[in-house]
Write a sequence for this structure.
């Protein structure tokens, strides 16, 4: 039976509306997608880490409640579980501030065994972080060897835009591993200063990975490959919040 394996951070998102905290929910880009799949009964695994504290326990309990196994989550005794503050504006778009205190030894876990046609989801700064690079490559190499499908979502935040040039070689390496790349126009603007899907695909993606999906909020979804170039309109809706919107798109 095919399974979906994600690797990424776990974090507690504290959401602010009108300058006041309104809710605290476990999150993390890849985790959000894995949780959506777990709720649908898909066979999932998630590789991550969290602290041995109340925040970490909340995250682990949330995973179990949503049918996401926790045996591949490293619970570290030192450091603290990460927390983010998400400030929603009038359009319910979020601006983030992150607080992290990780130990020196990271991601000390045994990976799930991959099979052919399993799906491996990677993304965000977690897939670029030099401290974790060997761990990420270990999973990507296993996925390539076993002929699993690698799905890469850069999820590149504005907080890292000044590092885009320095991170470019690692981004390219991830693109080379990927079978499918899905990102938002906002991600690519912070990475490359581009928003146009055609230009992004032809100049930055196609040489490394032939399959590309670009989302743009309420605007159309762009699909590009060696044989397909299509736009899919997005039906208008009133969003309660855009937090995790792209992550849930990945789950679909």
């Amino acid at each position: 039976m095919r399974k979906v394996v994600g690797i990424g951070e776990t974090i507690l998102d504290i959401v602010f509306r009108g300058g006041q905290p309104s809710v605290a929910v476990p999150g993390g880009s890849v985790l959000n997608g894995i949780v959506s799949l777990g709720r649908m009964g898909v066979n999932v695994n998630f590789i991550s880490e969290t602290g041995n504290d109340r925040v970490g326990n909340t995250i682990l309990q949330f995973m179990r409640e949503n049918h996401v196994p926790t045996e591949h989550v490293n619970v570290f005794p030192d450091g603290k579980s990460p927390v983010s503050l998400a400030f929603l504006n009038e359009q319910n778009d979020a601006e983030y501030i992150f607080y992290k205190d990780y130990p020196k030894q990271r991601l000390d876990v045994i990976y799930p065994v991959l099979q052919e046609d399993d799906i491996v989801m990677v993304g965000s700064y977690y897939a670029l972080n030099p401290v974790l690079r060997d761990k990420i490559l270990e999973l990507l190499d296993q996925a390539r060897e076993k002929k699993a499908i690698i799905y890469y979502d850069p999820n590149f935040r504005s907080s890292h835009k000044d590092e885009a040039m320095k991170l470019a070689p690692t981004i390219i390496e991830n693109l080379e591993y990927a079978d499918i790349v899905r990102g938002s126009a906002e991600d690519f603007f912070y990475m490359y200063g581009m928003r146009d899907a055609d230009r992004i695909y032809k100049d930055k993606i196609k040489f490394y990975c032939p399959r590309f999906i670009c989302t743009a909020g309420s605007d159309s979804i762009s699909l590009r490959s060696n044989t397909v170039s299509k736009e899919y309109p997005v039906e208008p809706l009133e969003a309660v919040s855009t937090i995790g919107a792209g992550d849930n798109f990945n789950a679909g």
In short: DSSP finds seven helices and 13 strands in the chain. The helical segments are 29-39, 54-65, 133-146, 164-177, 185-192, 197-205, 245-251. The longest helix spans residues 133-146.
